[in-house]
Amino acid sequence: MTSLDRFDLKLLHILQRDARLTLGQLSERVNLSTSQCSRRLARLEREGVIQGYSLRVSPDALGLQVTAFIFLSMDKHRMDDPRSAVAALLKRDEVIECHTVTGNHDFIIKVVVGSLGALSSFLAEVVSPLDGIHDIATQVAMDTLKTNGPLRTD
Amino acid sequence: MTSLDRFDLKLLHILQRDARLTLGQLSERVNLSTSQCSRRLARLEREGVIQGYSLRVSPDALGLQVTAFIFLSMDKHRMDDPRSAVAALLKRDEVIECHTVTGNHDFIIKVVVGSLGALSSFLAEVVSPLDGIHDIATQVAMDTLKTNGPLRTD
DNA sequence: CCATTATGCGCAATAATTTTGCATAAAAGT
DNA sequence: ACTTTTATGCAAAATTATTGCGCATAATGG
């Protein structure tokens, strides 16, 4: 078990918002020396609290203009192993997120693609052919008010 | 307009997966000098292709064990300005993502909170009190098969 | 089609940042 | 209270990032 004190939480709070601050800038804000910040971060990484560092890229700049949520229901017997039921989906770069959920559907899947045409192809060529599909519903995002929001640290 | 050549795309592809590679490591993989990688990244940041750098933090380590999707419908007249209709939500740290969507509901909102109790409080104290709410539906994620997947770059 | 200009490049010097050895101080355990 | 462990800051060392410069290549314009 890993316990996080207020310094750790503050580091995580700040770095979630800008992971490119230098240790110098970080140390000012949390009131610790740079060396200690460095060591604490190393520990948080080692213990898996920090899972990685990534870029936020503008989807538009990549020509990805459509975000959609796909709701999937499977035939009952396919749900003993949810992961393998949608294994083919998880590998696809269009799939940003995939969860099993309570409610009418079994999976909720977030995809980001170039166009409505690409969404349509994805549904027809990747989702529909999956084994044991019972139902597919799709909702297209028109306006993204917030994404990749940081987790609360307090 | 910003055009991205194969080097830019390769940089974005790699850094989305690990934004902490050094310019040296990066330069090997893309076959460019470190100085040129540095300059290209500076440009991508300047032009907004790279929107920022962030941490992937383990929700569990922060005691955040519940991910849920909240579906919100508003009274018709509240939807002329979607953003202000949910402005109070966007500020909240529990809200990771918020979109307007096609279909039965107006908004889809992803939240990450500590417990089902916290989810319940959030719904009762933050969502329900919003002005002009017509309907609320919630789906709790049981298993997260993929999150924060990188965008496709090709 | 050549001249001019602009853009992209790598190298090497410089600057900035991160990591580590070490001594000290604070906590924790006995 | 005493010992052991853990956390800390400082300063040196190592690593990494940035920039000036000269050269090449490609785009622009006459």
TrEMBL record, chains A, B:
- GO BP term, example: regulation of DNA-templated transcription
Which PANTHER family does the UniProt entry name for this protein?
LEUCINE-RESPONSIVE REGULATORY PROTEIN, TRANSCRIPTIONAL REGULATOR AZLB
**Keyword Transcription applies:** yes
Which keywords accompany this UniProt record?
Answer: DNA-binding, Transcription, Transcription regulation
What Gene Ontology molecular-function terms does this entry list?
Answer: sequence-specific DNA binding
Which InterPro entries does its entry note? ArsR-like_HTH, AsnC-type_HTH_dom, Dimeric_a/b-barrel, Tscrpt_reg_AsnC-like, Tscrpt_reg_AsnC/Lrp_C, Tscrpt_reg_HTH_AsnC-type_CS, WH-like_DNA-bd_sf, WH_DNA-bd_sf
Which is one Pfam family of this protein?
AsnC_trans_reg
Query: Per its UniProt record, what CDD domains does this chain match?
Result: HTH_ARSR
Q: What protein name does the entry list?
A: Lrp/AsnC family transcriptional regulator, leucine-responsive regulatory protein
Q: Which SMART domains match?
A: HTH_ASNC
Instruction: Check the record and name the Gene3D superfamilies matching this protein.
Output: 3.30.70.920, Winged helix-like DNA-binding domain superfamily/Winged helix DNA-binding domain
Choose one Gene Ontology CC annotation of this protein and give it.
cytosol
Stretches assigned to the HTH asnC-type domain: 4-65
Instruction: Note the superkingdom of the native organism.
Output: Bacteria
Write out the coiled-coil annotation as residue ranges: none
